[in-house]
Amino acid sequence: MRSEGTFIAVEVDDAAAADAELARRLSEACPVDIFSSASSGGLEIVQQNLDECVLCRLCLDASPPGTVKVIKLYDGDAVLA
Ligand code: SF4
Questions:
Q1: Predicted local confidence at residue 5, as pLDDT
Q2: What is the C-alpha to C-alpha distance for residues 42 and 4, in angstroms, rounded to an integer?
Q3: Residue nearest (by alpha carbon) to ligand 1 atom 7
Q4: Do 8 and 53 touch, CB atoms closer than 8 A?
C-alpha cells in the first residue's frame, strides 16, 4: 500500500500491512499518527497526517527491515534510511 501527501509518501509492503500486530506497533510508534489499525485488523495510513512526518524513523525501527518506506517527495523521492 502507498499513500502520498504533498511532501511525504509512505509505502508499506502489502503482506505486512495485513498484519494486525504490526499495525498496532506502528500506530503506537508514530508520534504524529500516520498509522492506525483498520477495522479489518490491518494497517491504515492516515493520509491527512503524512506531511506531519518528523522523520524520526520510529516506524522503521518498529517494523521488519524493508517493509515500511518513508519517501521524501520534496527531496527527489529520497527514502528515509
Ligand atoms: S518517520 Fe516518524 S513521524 Fe514519520 S511516519 Fe515514521 S514514525 Fe511517523
A1: 98
A2: 19
A3: 30
A4: yes
The structure's pTM equals 0.95
Provide the total of helices (H) and of strands (E) in the chain, helices listed first: 3, 6
Which contacts qualify for 35-43: CB closer than 8 Å, 24 or more apart? 35/59, 42/17, 42/18, 43/1, 43/12, 43/16, 43/17, 43/18, 43/19
Residue 32 in this model has a pLDDT that exceeds 90: yes
pLDDT value at residue 19: 95
How far does the centroid of ligand 1 lie from the alpha carbon of residue 68, in Å?
Answer: 10
